[in-house]
Predict the structure.
Amino acid sequence: MQSFGCFLLIVLFTSSVVVTAQPKGYLYDESKVAPYELPDPLVCLDGTKVTDSKAWLKKRRPEVLRLFEDEVYGRSPGKPKAMRFEVVEEGEALGGKATRKQVVIHLGKGKKALAVNLLLYLPQKAKGPAPGFLTINFMGNHSVHADPAIRIPTSWVRNGTGVKNNKATADGRGSRASRWAIDAIIERGYAFATVYYGDIDPDFHDGYENGIHPLFPPKDPKKRKPTDWASIAGWAWGLSRCLDYLETDDAVDAKRIAVMGHSRLGKTSLWAGASDERFALVISNNSGCGGAALSRRKFGETVKRINTSFPHWFCDNYKKYNDKEGDCPVDQHMLIALSAPRPIYVASAVGDRWADPNGEFLSALGAEPVYQLFGHKFGATKQPPVDQPVHGRIGYHVRTGKHDVTPYDWKQYLDFADKHLK
Ligand code: GCU
C-alpha cells in the first residue's frame, strides 16, 4: 500500500462541539485519533500511478469499484428482466403547485415478488422535463408529507410513530415531513421522488430470505458467497430501478437526477451513485461509518461495531476488517471518488459525532485528487467552520445540530443542484 502523505496529518476538529448522546466506549476525541495511512486512490493494484482521467476511467475506477463490491457492499445483479411499472395514481397536489404520481415497480415473479412504491411530485410550472431528487426514506412514503392521497406501505416498517406490529397506519402521515423540503424543491423547479427502503428490503437480519435478495438471481440463501450483496447494496439497487422508471417518464429529465439519502440511507445513496453512473449528482446526509466517514480514523462508530449491530448491511467479506481497518484495500474517500467527475455533496452535523463529521470531510478531501484529473476542485483544504458550506464540484458542510435532515441541508442541496444541474 502506498503512503498518502498529507492524510497522515490529523486535522483538528475546532468547531464548537454540541454534546449529544452517543454510544459510550467509542472514540470522540480528535486528539486521540491514531495516525493512519490511507490507500492512494491513484495507485493501481499493479503499482502504476494514474495521471489522467482516461486511465482513471479505464483502469483504476473499475478496479476500485470491484474492490468495494468484493470487500464492502457485495456484488449486485444488473437490471432485471422481470420488472414492470404501473402508474397506480395521479392527481393534483401541494395546492396546485405539483402533480402527484404514484408508481408501483413490480419486481420478480412468484410468491416472493415485490411491489416497490415510488412517490413523485412533479412541478406544474416546469416547461419541459424537470431535473429532480430521488430520495429513499425510513418510515414509508406517507411519512414524508401529510398529503392524504399517499399510499401507505404494506411491507414491514420499523415500530414507531404510526406503526403497530411493524405495520404502517394512517397515523404516520407526515410524521417525517420535517426531513423533506418538498415545497422548496418544487418551488425551485425540481421533481421530488421518494421510495420506502423496506419495500426493497426489510431492515433486519433474516438470512436474506425476504426482500430483494432471493429474487435476483434466485438462489439458496444458505449458499451465499462472501461477496454477495447485502442490504445496503439491495437498497441502492432499488434506487437504480426507480431511475429505470424515471427514464420512462416524460415529465422528468432522467439525465439530471440527484440521488439523496440520510444516515444508513446516505451510505446507500453513495453506493447507488458509485455503482450507477446514470445518477447525475450524489448527496450523502450524515452517512457516517460505511458511508462518507473514513474507517481508519475509528472515530465514533467503527467497522466492528457496525458489522456487529447490523450484520446484514455489508457483504460477509467486510467482517474481515473488524478491528483491522488498515488491512482493507479501500477506505471511504475512494467511495466518494467513484462518483467523479459528477458533483457530489457530503453533509455533516456537528452534534453527530457517532458519524465522525471530520472523517466525513476528510473523505471528501481524499477524493479530490480524482476530481482534479478532470479539472475539478473542491475548494476546501480543512474542515470549514460550522454553517459555512463549500460548494465546489465536491460540496461539504457541517451544520449546527444533531443527526437529522433539516431545511438548512436542503437549502444547500438546492443551491448545489442549481449550480450543477441547471
Ligand atoms: C445507527 C448506525 C449508523 C446509521 C444510523 C441510521 O446509528 O450505527 O451507522 O447511520 O443508525 O441509519 O440511522
